[in-house]
Amino acid sequence: MTNSFPEGFAWGTATASYQIEGAVDEDGRGPSIWDTFARTPGKTANGDTGDIACDHYHRYAEDVDLMASLNFTHYRFSIAWPRIQPTGSGAFNQAGFDFYQRLIDKLLETGVQPWVTLYHWDLPQPLEDAGGWPVRDTAERFADYAAETYARLNDRVQYWTTLNEPWCSAYLGYGNGVHAPGRQEPEKTIAAVHHLNLGHGLAVERMRSIRADRQLGITHNTPIVAPATDSPEDKDAARRADGFGLRMFLDPILLGRYPEDMLEDLRAAQVDLSFLKEGDEKLIAQPIDVLGINYYNPSTVRRRAEPEPEGTVRLYPGGGDLEGVKRGFPESDMGWEIEPDALRRLLVKIHTNYPPIALYVTENGMACKDVVADDGTVDDPDRISYFDGHLRSCRQAIEEGVDLRGYFAWTFTDNFEWSFAFTKRFGLVYVDYATQERIAKSSAAWFAGVAKSNALPEAAV
Questions:
Q1: Hey, is 405 helix, strand or coil?
Q2: pLDDT digits (tens, 9 = 90+) for 173-183
Q3: Is the pLDDT of residue 454 over 90?
Q4: Is residue 300's pLDDT more than 70?
Q5: I want to staple 413 with a disulfide (CB 3.0 to 4.6 A). Which of 209, 337, 360, 429 is the partner?
Q6: 3-state secondary structure of 359
Q7: Is the pLDDT of residue 35 over 90?
Q8: 33-70 b/e (C-beta count within 10 Å ≥ 16 → b)
Q9: Ramachandran angles phi, psi of 19, nearest 5°
Q10: CA distances in angstroms from 407 to 55, 76, 185, listed in the order given
Q11: Coiled-coil annotation: which residues (predicted)?
């Protein structure tokens, strides 16, 4: 197997608006659910917020210059919905659009292709006050926002992602509540799943009617699930975990229907499915050009033998007997197991089970306990090894016929890591949050070399 990647392979990095921008009260931006959640005592590490984050709103030009110096060909960033439509409906904010115009201008000036994600979890707070993603109207409002943003920016942006990781929005936001808006209502999660899927379909339909020749898609953190044992109970647990995490999203988008086994399970769990309307699956299954896959760690599950611990908040409706287990792999600073080959298996599974579509790994990365040495450098060999292993798995997947066209390292700079706030570092670039100084880590130099040569080193790290 050659170490080279196909000609034109995209070497990118990715970020999210709330995690890096800061400037939450500037130039007409309205509040998002993450502003509210982060300011709620006890929700984030040390009570920190993204009010300043990495100050990217003011330092974007510096960041883009650094990005270009590291040989990135693409930059995937998200637009803050409340920055350009403060209440989630009604009037749009020109000052918000002006920021993203400046960012896109700077990217193109330096030779980096912009890749827009329309939604990376920062729902305008007024829409959550009206019910959030479990309510159908939120899908309609998202389509309006997506269409207006696309109409204004499609002249210079070729690649568009509607939603980032709707699994997190639905299950972590409305199930166990560890993400904004912090609701613990697992019975509402499937309605949220459906309206996120519907919002994607409605947005693609509207965007395609405005301009048809752009690359439109969605990004999912679909799991690759394995049963802990070969027992029928554990195999069924894996089936359901795969259903909640992968098939409830990919099946309606790529096959035009929800998986019948999951609908049966949900009915058996007495989940109200009245939000499913005739014609919805057709709306969701709008043709798309690209599918983004975010991958960090494998998933192994079993059926819980004992009753749930007192006070457990379920992630999935009717899924209280599902239990994740670890298999003894090395772990990142997030406590996530590291198994590079699982990424290959995931890509091959999607390639095998769904109609042909261009795939991109739109996030992949590792949190490490990075420190600045006395000489001012940041050495992160574990992250280099992580990238090397996962890129070799990507290369193997291509050899096996997967139409994989790019890889985006998560993430460009250290940032506000959601409920973990500033306690976890995923970046290729170290950020001193007190001074906002940027220091490219050793992994950044390694990745720049790979991107420049379009190939991995001969020997694995």
A1: strand
A2: 999 999 999 99
A3: yes
A4: yes
A5: 429
A6: strand
A7: yes
A8: bbbbbbeeeebbeeebbbebbbbbbebbeebbebbbeb
A9: -75, -20
A10: 26, 11, 35
A11: none
- CA 117/CA 79 separation, integer angstroms: 6
The token pair at 71 is 């040989």
For the chain, domains (ranges, CATH) are 10-453 (3.20.20.80)
Number of other residues whose CB lies within 10 A of the CB of residue 334: 15
Q: d(Cα 461, Cα 455) in Å, to the nearest integer?
A: 14
pTM of the model: 0.98
**Cβ atoms of 379 and 332 closer than 8 Å:** no
Active site residues: 363
The per-residue pLDDT for range 96-119, each reduced to its tens digit, is 999 999 999 999 999 999 999 999
**Closest-CA residue to 405 (of 348, 362, 373, 456):** 362
Mean pLDDT across 251-260: 98
* Structural tokens at position 69: 């110096």
pLDDT band at 1 (very low <50, low <70, confident <90, very high): low
∠ CA 165-267-353, nearest 5°, is 45
Handedness of CA 81, 82, 87, 90 (dihedral sign): negative
For the chain, what is the HEC assignment?
Answer: CCCECCCCCEEEEECCHHHHCCCCCCCCCCCEHHHHHHCCCCCCHHHCCCCCCCCHHHHHHHHHHHHHHCCCCEEEEECCHHHHCCCCCCCCCHHHHHHHHHHHHHHHHHCCEEEEEEECCCCEHHHHHCCCCCCHHHHHHHHHHHHHHHHHHCCCCCEEEEEECHHHHHHHHHCCCCCCCCCCCHHHHHHHHHHHHHHHHHHHHHHHHHCCCCEEEEEECCCCEEECCCCHHHHHHHHHHHHHHHHHHHHHHHHCCCCHHHHHHHHHCCCCCCCCCCCHHHHHCCCCCEEEEECCCCEEEEECCCCCCCCCCCCCCCCCCEEECCCCCCECCCCCECCHHHHHHHHHHHHHHCCCCEEEEEECCCCECCCCCCCCCCCCHHHHHHHHHHHHHHHHHHHCCCCEEEEEEECCECCCCHHHCCCCECCCEEEECCCCEEEECHHHHHHHHHHHHCECCCCCC
Q: What is the pLDDT of residue 116?
A: 99
The average pLDDT across 316-323 equals 93
Distance CA 306, CA 236 (A): 17
Identify the band that residue 253 occupies on the pLDDT scale cut at 50, 70 and 90.
very high
The structure tokens 């996120």 sit at 196
